[in-house]
Amino acid sequence: MNDEDYTQDEALRRRLTSQPENSEKQTSANDDDDDILATESSRLVDTSEDALLDAKKSIAYGAVEGDEGIADTEEIHRAEIEQLLAEGKPGWDDEEEDIIRRKLDYRVMIWACVMFFSLQLVRNNIQNAISADFLLDAGISQNEYNLGQTIFLIFFLLWEIPSQALVRRFGADIWLPILMTLWSIMSILQLLIKGPELFLFTRAIIGSCEGGFVPGLTFYLSSFYKANELSMRYSWVWSTQSGTNVIGALLASGFIQIGGSLRGWQWLFLLEGILCTAIGISSFFVMPSLRTRVIARVFTPRESAIVRVRVSHDDPSKKNQQEKITFKKDSLLSGLRTVYNTVTDRYLAPIFLLGFVAFVPAQTANYYLTITLRQLGFDQTATNLLTIPYAIINITMTIWFSRLSDRYGVRWVFAVLSALWVLPNLILLEVIPDFSSRWLRFTFITLIMGYPYYHPILISWISANANNPDRRSLGFAVYNIAVQAGNILAANVYRENDAPFYHRGNGVLIGLNVLSILIVVLIRQYFQHENRRREKEWEQLDEYEREEYIAASKGLGNKQLHFKLKV
Fold first, then answer.
1. How far is CA 536 from the centre of its chain?
2. CA distance linking residue 166 with residue 478, whole number of Å
3. Closest by alpha carbon to 248, among 263, 269, 222?
4. DSSP structure string for 481-509
5. Which of 252, 271, 389, 542 has its CA 20 to 30 A from that of 369?
6. What is the CB neighbour count within 10 angstroms for residue 147?
7. 223-to-172, 190, 488 alpha-carbon distances in Å
8. pLDDT for the residue numbered 21
9. How far, in Å, CA of 361 to CA of 338, rounded?
């Protein structure tokens, strides 16, 4: 940079950071170029050479048509909003934020649920295929099926953390559609299964793709929503899981009866795979992205500016969340150290343990629902349709419990209530005579699987107690690995020699359910004891010592004395 450019940059920098003494007079005296400069310059918090050059280009060339013109206008609005926030003034009003939130729900959340629908449809179509004699036709035993589900879950959890790095590298709007398209192709390939080899291979690939998808989608959504908006939105996503079971059952009941040159389960894999492939390819074009200059056409330039600013204003750690990362030589070692610190976090680890055991009873019933119903004498069509009632109950209760948890700011109560919902139905399923009505047994299974799924509440619990953006995002991934590890256990509780009533397996599930209640209560007691200890030590410090402690303890995260653990 030559001396003349340096002098111009210094002059512009002074214009950006100074305030006129008589603003009203100054404004009336400025010409049009100065008005544009004043508006444009307020966004330049970073007064680097690149930022200064961008400002000059905007002023010199003005707005251009199309996406570039929209983006330029958005940047001007963003500069105005950031300037207002820096001055302690509101950058938008409640009505604007309500409109933006509704548009986000329409433009981001709906498609996120469609994407999760694709995930669940491919994950569960193997169970619907079983009702169409897939295991018999493909020559796969129940123990080989158990092995396939275990392999699926192992690869699912192995890709949880690595996929987060790839999302940061390529962007969720690129990486997630790639995963969706891959698992859809694998779903189609399943129609060729004749023996355990191809079955185990497709389970491994689908597990890898779907495991990388879940934390990536969670990370993606967190970039668009504030902290107090996420729990409910996560409950919508995971309620899609039950909704997909309803739609999947209806689709399966039709596909498996097509007939012709293919077996019913082959039509199921083919047609659902084609549907999910279409969703995966569409996602490349439909997903809004904060990495692009224009987020989505549904937002006005001012609304787009608010979308970008409001989340980082709510949580400054999200400001650079969508920036592209690069892999360095020491990235692996640093990443492993961060993972270790997260896994051993003494305030998050109990929640990880809870995630491992909490959902095993209902997940076991889910894995074996179609097998159990066929063993009870229901035909193919009835088996698929009987998966609908529990899904409706589960969706309703999950959203209701999540809303109540957010409203009252309490997690442990609703975790205990959810577990207590399951316990009596497990006990009744275990003690009723073997000759009892199949409809009675179906009722208890439906109530077990229709419980309030408190997975979104536990995610919120981790987020509230991380007190560090890196620990929070990685904590979710580790927690989800714990949940999937629990699903591995769930896939092996019911054994072939325990069929059809699985008395031994039900006894194990009762024990795990009681254990989950005990863990929740102990977490509450532990957090309350820790809060009392911190409060006592904090009160012993004077004002000066508190200020010194706050300045020196920023790296302690959830171990800071003045941080109150949420129960």
1. 37
2. 17
3. 269
4. HHHHHHHHHHTTTS-GGGTTT-HHHHHHH
5. 271
6. 18
7. 11, 35, 31
8. 41
9. 32
C-alpha dihedral, 495 to 450 to 156 to 358, nearest 10°: -80
Do 170 and 225 form a contact (C-beta atoms < 8 A)?
no
| E strand or H helix at 536 | helix 503-539
The identity of residue 492, as a single letter, is N
Any idea which residue has 């191809």 for tokens?
Answer: 198
Residue whose entry in the numeric block shows the structure tokens 């009873």: 361
Handedness of CA 563, 464, 82, 102 (dihedral sign): negative
Give residue 174's region: left, alpha or beta (phi > 0; psi -120 to 50).
Answer: alpha
Q: DSSP character for 317?
A: G
Spatial CA neighbour of 534 closest among 557, 566, 558, 563: 563
Do 490 and 448 contact (CB within 8 A), yes or no? no
| E strand segments, 286-406 | none
pLDDT value for 267: 92
Residue whose entry in the numeric block shows the structure tokens 């990880």: 352
- Helix (H/G/I), strand (E/B), else coil: 2: coil
Tokens of 543: 């004002």
| Distances in whole angstroms, Cα of residue 364 to Cα of each of 103, 249, 368, 426 | 38, 18, 6, 12
What pLDDT does 114 receive?
95
Residue 336 one-letter amino acid: L
pTM > 0.90? no
Low-confidence ranges of the chain (pLDDT < 70): 1-68, 315-332, 335, 469
Closest alpha carbon to 484 in 177, 249, 215, 272:
215
The 3-class SS string of 49-92 reads HHHHHHHHHHHHHCCCCCHHHHHHHHHHHHHHHHHHHHCCCCCC
Cβ burial of 180 (10 Å; 0-12, 13-18, 19+) is buried
CA dihedral sign of residues 376, 377, 380, 382? negative
Residue with tokens 């995963």: 179
pLDDT at 92: 87
